[in-house]
């Protein structure tokens, strides 16, 4: 729903020059909807000239004094980000662009107020899940029983350290992975070769080839 303007409600309260920023306010609010509102303040009348995606339940034509109190000095062109509290207690992260005329004098503000409550809720949920990681060592008997989980974790660490995806591994990546698993002793696990071949989408013969090369390299290093 398009934002409201002071000119719609109060005749010529909002000057035409400040209303050229209304499409920008609508574009930003539409992109971030439903989590952000964009408010344009007219400093000459110290009133709200336009609101897109109204989250704060303020009205066009209302006073801008509260906003001016929040941001303080208008010396910078961009102020923030800074925190605000919405009428319903939700925390907002805000940033303000100072609108200036050709002489550099401020005549308006374009304020973006972003509702960070969903982000903070997601962060808290992730922190709760992370708290369980490393809470206790997995029993060695369980490791032996569920060797696939152990191998999967080792492969995930390998991929994560190199910023790779399993589906995008090149031949040299396969060789490096097999070498790592050999160095860590994973090839003592029965049925690892067919499992690894299926996981990587390569043949068993290729896995054995990489394994043979890894063992030769290991032997050469030992004898050096």
Automatic annotation (TrEMBL):
Residues 21-123 form the YheO-like domain. The lineage of its organism: Bacteria, Pseudomonadati, Pseudomonadota, Alphaproteobacteria, Hyphomicrobiales. It comes from the Bacteria. Keywords: DNA-binding. Residues 151-212 form the Transcriptional regulator DauR-like HTH domain. GO terms for molecular function: DNA binding. This is Predicted transcriptional regulator YheO, contains PAS and DNA-binding HTH domains.
């Amino acid at each position: 729903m398009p934002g409201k303007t002071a000119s719609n409600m109060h005749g010529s309260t909002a000057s035409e020059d400040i209303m050229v920023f209304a499409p920008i306010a609508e574009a930003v609010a539409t992109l971030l909807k439903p989590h952000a509102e964009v408010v344009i303040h007219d400093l000459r009348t110290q009133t709200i000239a336009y609101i897109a995606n109204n989250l704060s339940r303020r009205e066009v034509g209302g006073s801008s004094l509260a906003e001016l109190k929040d941001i303080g000095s208008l010396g910078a062109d961009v102020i923030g980000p800074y925190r605000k509290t919405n009428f319903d207690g939700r925390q907002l992260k805000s940033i303000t662009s100072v609108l200036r005329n050709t002489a550099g004098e401020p005549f308006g503000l374009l304020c973006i107020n972003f509702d960070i409550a969903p982000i903070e809720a997601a962060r808290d949920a992730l922190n709760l899940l992370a708290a369980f990681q490393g809470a206790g060592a997995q029993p060695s008997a369980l490791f032996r029983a569920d060797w696939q989980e152990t191998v999967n974790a080792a492969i995930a660490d390998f991929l994560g350290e190199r910023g790779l995806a399993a589906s995008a591994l090149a031949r040299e990546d396969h060789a490096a992975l097999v070498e790592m698993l050999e160095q860590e002793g994973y090839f003592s696990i029965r049925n690892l070769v067919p499992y690894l071949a299926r996981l990587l989408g390569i043949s068993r013969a290729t896995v054995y080839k990489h394994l043979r090369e890894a063992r030769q390299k290991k032997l050469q290093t030992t004898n050096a």
